[in-house]
Design goal:
globular; 2 domains; single chain
Length: about 425
């Protein structure tokens, strides 16, 4: 659905087109969620956006930025909202908590649970909650309870909840205590700079994470905030981030960026639209120097494999990142790209070789498999380390990422092993 084809149409027609597009893509699967999307006027919650942008199935609408220009509040893309609502399996009469208010998603949930249900939406920013309250009242959803406060505990008095949906990037997950025994919790959880939206369901003393989905959200503020280390290079055209490790030397990394680079090619190829998102999970498993690199598309100092955030191995003064080049074939329709590595800085050649080897291991042993399993455990309890995997320790919880056994899988690198 492009802006050029829908901009002159009415909101009612755009809403119907959006529902049809989400059904075709598979993001909408139930009649209850589809009816909510067909009913709630999305344009009333994003008045700053043109109609075409408001009803684009895959576009986020940014509603607030900080002084540096970064988004601090947004209304998520409809495809992701639909996926999360379907994952939550909301029913008539359900009690729902949303963390991160925009108003529109809360209205969708209110439509699904009906007047016999309840929706509580929490945000730490008074600008966001005032706006959400106003838009919800104006569109007839004044029964949604909008709470201003820190999501760590602001909604405790209204629980327990049959479903919890977190619509900000959360490094930790303290809300399990508020979930009803058979409830579902949908959380875009951050670990090692990766974000995956997972549906957590209770299993004994822990939660099992289902259907990890690649996504991106505005980061959590308040007590739950956990900023990554970051180095900004080339006047903001390149940004490097890593969760832990030695302090980054932005000046040294900036010099490394413009110095001659190491270039290696892996003989691993991908086709157009072919997913390879488990590569990031594998890199985060086996190398604690894993992080992300972002580059302005107009910057000619780097060539990233993915347009925006791309995997990188990173030390205080050097880095190596994933790149691609087109592999020419006789059949013009069979366009493929070979994965490669560019290394920068005094340790760049070694980082490039190690990233190269990690990619080949993933391609040989793990690429065609189901990907890792996730479980979420309380902090402070003994959690056995997986044979191939990693435990991400957080303040309230521990996230365990475990890969299915494979006879040729490399053993995980112990975090902290690299300098």
């Amino acid at each position: 659905m492009s802006a050029g084809t829908v901009s002159s149409e009415s909101p009612d027609l755009l809403r119907a087109d959006l529902v049809a597009a989400l059904r075709r893509s598979g993001s909408l699967r139930s009649s209850a969620v589809a009816e909510a999307f067909a009913t709630v006027p999305r344009e009333r919650f994003v008045p700053e956006a043109p109609l075409a942008a408001a009803y684009s199935a895959r576009d986020v609408v940014i509603t607030k930025r900080d002084t540096a220009g970064r988004a601090t509040s947004s209304v998520s893309a409809p495809w992701l909202q639909a996926e999360m609502l379907e994952a939550a399996r909301l029913t008539r009469g359900a009690r729902v908590l949303e963390v991160g208010s925009g108003g529109y998603n809360a209205a969708l949930m209110a439509e699904i649970v009906g007047p016999e249900g309840s929706v509580v939406t929490v945000d730490i920013d008074p600008w966001v909650t005032e706006r959400a309250s106003r838009f919800l009242a104006e569109t007839g959803y004044s029964n949604v309870k909008v709470v201003l406060g820190d999501a760590e505990d602001a909604a405790d008095e209204y629980g327990p909840y049959d479903a919890i949906l977190i619509t900000v990037g959360a490094w930790d997950c303290p809300w399990g205590r508020l979930l009803a025994p058979d409830g579902r919790m949908v959380v875009p959880l951050i670990f090692a700079t990766i974000t995956r939206s997972m549906t957590f369901v209770r299993k004994g003393d822990c939660f099992v994470g289902l259907d990890p989905t690649v996504c991106g959200f505005v980061s959590m503020q308040g007590a739950g905030a956990h900023p990554d280390q970051e180095a900004i290079l080339a006047d903001g055209a390149v940004r490097l981030s890593i969760e832990d490790g030695p302090e980054l030397d932005a000046a040294a990394l900036g010099r490394a960026l413009v110095d001659p680079r190491t270039e290696l090619w892996t003989r691993v190829t991908v086709g157009g639209g072919e997913p390879f998102e488990t590569l990031n999970l594998w890199l985060a498993t086996v190398d604690d120097r894993f992080g992300m690199i972002w580059g302005d598309p107009d910057c000619d100092l780097i060539r990233l494999a993915v347009r925006w955030y791309c995997p990188v191995l990173l030390t205080a003064d050097s880095f190596a990142y994933l790149t691609t080049r087109e592999v020419h074939r006789d059949d013009a329709e069979d366009v493929r790209h070979e994965l490669g590595v560019h290394g920068h800085g005094p340790r760049g050649a070694g980082l490039a070789r190690q990233l190269h080897d990690h990619i080949q291991t993933w391609d040989r042993d793990l690429r065609r498999g189901p990907g890792p399993d996730f479980t979420l455990h309380p902090a402070g309890v003994a959690v056995p380390a997986p044979a191939v995997g990693r435990v991400f320790a957080k303040r309230h919880t521990q996230l365990v990422m475990a890969w299915p056994p494979h006879p040729r899988s490399a053993p995980p690198t112990v975090p902290g092993q690299h300098g």
